[in-house]
Amino acid sequence: MKILIFTDLHAQYEYIEELTKKSKDADLVISLGDHTLFDNGTKEFFDFLESLNKPCLVIHGNHEPSKETREECEKRLNIEFMHKKYLRYQGILFIGHGGGGFTSIYPSFENLKKEFSDAMKTSEKTILLTHAPPINTKLDLVPGVGHVGSKTYREFIEKNQPTLSISGHIHDTFGIEDKIGKTKLINPGPKGMIINI
Q1: Which CATH number goes with the domain that contains 21?
Q2: Which of 17, 31, 69, 161 has a 20 to 30 Å separation from 38 between CA atoms?
Q3: Whole-number Cα distances in Å, 153 to 6, 52, 109, 160
Q4: What is the pLDDT of residue 91?
C-alpha cells in the first residue's frame, strides 16, 4: 500500500499542488495536524482533502481544537478522525493521538496504552500517528533548545515497536528520519512523502 503522509500545512496552500500530484499515486492520505494557522482555514483544508477522492486519516495538532477537527471529518465520507483511536485498514493497524505540542507526558494516551498494545498483538504491521514526536530522537531536536518531544510516546514505541511512528510539529526536522529499535520514525513535513508498506 502506498500512503501519502504530511504534516504542519499551516494553511500554506502553496503546498496543495504538490500534495495533489503525490496523492494520485497513493492508496491512503494521512494528515498529522496543524493543518490550520491558529484555527484559520479549517474548512478550506478539509475541502482540499475531500477533493483528493482518497481515504484519509486525520489527527489535529496544537493549532486546531479536536472538536472542530472531528466535526469537519464527520461531514465527509472519506475522512476518518483518528484521535485516541485505532483502526485496521488493508491489513495495517493505525493508532492515532493528536494535539499536544511541547508536552512530555500525555495522560490521555497513557490511559489508552493497554488497549493499543493489545490491538497490536494481532497485527503484523502498525503505524503510530501523533502530532508531536517521541523524545530524544532526531525528530524532536530544536537547535539551541534541545529535545522537546514526548516521553509518553517514546516509552510506548520502545515497548511495543510499531512498524512506523509518524509525527510532525517540529519544523526544524521536516523530512528527517530516525529509529527507535526496529521502529522507523518519520517527520514528513508539509510537502509530504509517499511511503510504501
Answers
A1: 3.60.21.10
A2: 17
A3: 19, 30, 8, 11
A4: 95
Most distant CA pair in the chain, distance: 44
Its pTM surpasses 0.70? yes
The three cell numbers locating residue 25? 499515486
CB 154 within 8 A of CB 138: no
Q: Coil, strand, or helix at residue 48?
A: helix
Please, what are the averages of pLDDT over each run of 10 residues along the chain (197 residues)? 96 90 97 91 93 97 94 95 97 96 91 97 97 98 94 98 98 97 98 96
Cell, residue 90: 488493508
- State whether residue 14 is helix, strand or coil: helix
The number of folded domains in the chain is 1
DSSP H or E stretch at residue 147: strand 146-147
